[in-house]
UniProtKB/TrEMBL annotation:
It comes from the Eukaryota. Residues 617-644 are annotated as: Disordered. SUPFAM superfamilies: Cadherin-like. GO terms for cellular component: plasma membrane. This is PCDA6 protein. One of its GO terms (biological process) is homophilic cell adhesion via plasma membrane adhesion molecules. InterPro entries: Cadherin-like_dom, Cadherin-like_sf, Cadherin_CS, Protocadherin/Cadherin-CA.
């Protein structure tokens, strides 16, 4: 009846037997080691009782011990650190990572809730969100590699025990760069305007270039457009100099719009540009230039003082004072300019130089030659010339004796000339020559002679252009003792101007009488130029002298013939003639030209005022002995024009 107790082996439980007295024993199961439900949730033990008999008898029972759960386990993450990489252009809602924590406890003690504990840097607190039940972390904002390249998220997992137990892990997010930033260009220094004479290599501007991306995305190449006349130079990373590569010319391009272009090395590349306005500053590098090197100016004579003859213009492409032009006449001989207040001889203005000077420093000069041609106007009437010698005597071109004095005549005046002709003189015999000159030139000085009175067919005629008065037919006694001719001399101007001369021709008997009268006249006889009574008296006096002096005349007849021949063939003081090469000269104000029809002759006038521009006609010279004299000595056109 003595019982003993034994318990199956167990590391957690032991059996404690207490005997308050001999008849009774108390059994206690003692927990000798803490239980762990997560290790052994149920313990199975066998308790055996044995008595003291021989053989001993036993009795046994099974003890089933269930361990109740308590919140004694914290949540455990499968990784302590989660490493993630995302491009910076990841869209909102992108899954960053999924964390997982386990809690072996049962029921609410094993239920885990996820939370983001901290985020570094703090600026990312709005960029991430975690699902409390699933542990998924997603983006709620945009990443920016250029702002933050790395984020660290501390995640906690807690159960629902009281108090709850916590587990922790970290998520490390590396942001990857994408080419989402275009290069940036800044002008840090600008030196404008640039002088057009600036040397090659002059720095116009300093520029700074950068790209916030990294690696190839941040490597920038720069260029300039247009490629000339500027270029880029770099000595430091991200720093460029805009320099002058070619010489400038403000007159060609006064301002440049330069574009600096930057391009990164991304795929695809991003580009940026910056415009730089570069004005060019003028220097005085252009002399005034006339539109013509030589100006030909036609000016009418008799222009009033101060009248505008021509207008010249010089262009200077420089600006402001460098392009402001002033004009002056330049005296090439003395090397000085002539202002409006000075006077010069008119002849010096036939050709002169005009200077154009700008206001630059130093001033530049342009020159042009002005050739001035004075266009003649018909402002001079023909002027009758006195006979050679200025008094009575033989006219070199006349066949008779002329006398009287001649003065200049105008449209309103007339002069009287005297001549003698013998009865029976053949047709074509020259009895006198009317000499006149016109101070004009060209057609304005081309003179023609006409018989004004008597009208109709008279015994005398005048050469249209020679002025020689000759017999139109043989003279007869019926023609009377004296013929009065009114000869008008006209030029070819518009309107024409004229002068008149009255020629009184006395008709005498025989050549000997003419020579006698000529000799007497040469000795000092002056015939009156009065009316008909005076003419009759003169004729009677002449007859008396002829009768009385016939013997004397006979003695000197031979001498008279010699003198007559000498005067006829000797070189004339009034006109010298001779062959000369044909000369091309200006004929009139309209610019026509002509050559001598026969041969050019030099004209020398011994008496009267000289001309600077004469029209020369072929004179009616006596032909050589072997050539018969021409009947009509008038010329239809001027033989040549001589400009002296």
């Amino acid at each position: 009846a003595q019982l003993s107790y034994t318990l199956s082996p167990s590391e957690h439980f032991t059996l404690d037997v207490k005997s308050p007295d001999e008849n009774r024993k108390s059994l206690f199961m003692i927990l000798s080691k803490p239980l762990d439900r997560e290790t052994v949730p149920v313990h199975r033990l066998v308790l055996t009782a044995s008595d003291g008999g021989r053989p001993s008898l036993t009795g046994a029972m099974e003890l089933l011990i269930s361990v109740l759960d308590v919140n004694d386990n914290i949540p455990q993450f499968n990784q302590s650190v989660y490493k993630v990489k995302l491009p910076e252009d990841a869209l909102e809602g992108t899954l960053v990572s999924r964390v997982n924590a386990a809690d072996p406890d049962l029921g609410p003690y094993g239920a885990v809730i996820y939370e983001i504990d901290t985020i570094a840097p703090a600026s990312g607190s709005d960029l991430f969100n975690i699902d409390a039940n699933s542990g998924e972390i997603r983006l709620t904002g945009a990443l920016d590699y250029e702002a933050v390249t790395f984020y660290e998220l501390n995640i906690k997992a807690k159960d629902k025990g009281l108090p709850p137990l916590l587990g922790h892990c970290s998520v490390e997010l590396e942001v990857l760069d994408v080419n989402d930033n275009a290069p940036e260009v800044w002008v840090t220094s600008l030196s404008v305007p640039v002088s057009e004479d600036a040397s090659v290599g002059t720095v116009v501007a300093l520029l700074s270039v950068s790209d916030r991306d990294s690696g190839a995305n941040g490597r920038v190449q720069c260029s300039v457009w247009p490629t000339s006349p500027f270029g880029l130079e770099t000595r430091f990373l991200g720093s460029y100099s805009l320099v002058l590569r070619e010489a400038l010319d403000r007159e060609r391009v006064s301002e440049y719009e330069v574009e600096v272009r930057a391009e990164d090395g991304g795929k695809p590349p991003l580009r940026a540009s910056r415009g730089v306005r570069v004005p060019v500053c003028d220097v005085n590098d252009n002399a005034p230039a006339f539109s013509q090197a030589v100006y030909t100016v036609l000016a009418r004579e008799n222009e009033a003082a101060g009248a505008e003859l021509a207008r010249v213009w010089a262009r200077d492409p420089d600006e402001a004072g460098n392009g402001r032009v002033s004009y002056s006449l330049w005296e090439g001989v003395s090397g000085a300019s002539v202002s409006g207040g000075g006077w010069r001889p008119a002849s010096s203005y036939v050709s002169f130089e005009v200077r154009a000077v700008d206001a630059g420093e130093p001033p530049l000069v342009g020159n042009a030659t002005v050739q001035l041609f004075v266009v003649d106007e018909n402002d001079n009437a023909p002027v009758l010339l006195p006979p050679a010698g200025g008094g009575p005597g033989l006219d070199p071109f006349a066949g008779g004796v002329v006398g009287g004095s001649v003065e200049a005549a105008s449209d309103a005046g007339s002069e009287t000339l005297w001549a003698w002709a013998a009865w029976g003189a053949p047709a074509g015999q020259v009895v006198a020559k009317i000499r006149a000159v016109d101070a004009d030139s060209g057609y304005n000085a081309w003179l023609r002679y006409e018989v004004l009175e008597p009208r109709g067919k008279g015994p005398f005629r005048v050469g249209l252009y020679s002025g020689e008065v000759s017999t139109a037919r043989a003279l007869e006694e019926a023609d009377g003792p004296r013929q009065r001719l009114v000869i008008v001399v006209r030029d070819h101007g518009e309107p024409s101007r004229s002068a008149t001369a009255t020629l009184s021709v006395s008709l005498v008997e025989g050549g000997e009488k003419v020579l006698a009268v000529g000799g007497s006249s040469s000795s000092g006889l002056v015939l009156p130029a009065e009316g008909g009574a005076a003419a009759g008296s003169a004729s009677a006096s002449t007859n008396v002298w002829l009768v009385v002096g016939i013997c004397a005349v006979s003695s000197v007849f031979v001498l008279a013939l010699v003198l007559y021949g000498a005067s006829r063939w000797a070189p004339r003081s009034a006109v010298l003639s001779g062959p000369a090469p044909a000369t091309l000269v200006c004929a009139s104000e309209v610019g026509s030209w002509s050559y001598s029809q026969r041969q050019s002759r030099s004209l020398c006038v011994a008496d009267g005022a000289g001309k600077s521009d004469l029209m020369v006609f072929s004179p009616n010279l006596p032909p050589p002995p072997s050539v018969p004299a021409a009947k009509d000595t008038s010329q239809a056109e001027p033989s040549s024009l001589l400009d002296t």
